[in-house]
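User: Structure please.
Assistant: Input sequence and predicted structure:
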Amino acid sequence: MILHQRTHPNLDVADCFGCKVAHVKTGPNPTTTGGKRASEINATEARWHKDMPAYKRLRADGLQPKRIDGCANLEKKAKESWQVETGII
């Protein structure tokens, strides 16, 4: 039993912040626990898992890709620096 429950066992004392907070409930995040939006987020994360290291390597080489998405493919296929800068292969 926590100290606040010993002080206010009914958790309904007016103007008591601890009593108010004791009634707060949380639920699952709908954007990460299922549905279309969750699958989009998971797909983006899967792509970024390989694109982010490629983006960092290109940046370390002094190049500036237009976006993170597709950097792994860009790193593999680009032959010139302008191709990395523009994203056109």
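The radius of gyration is 25 Å.
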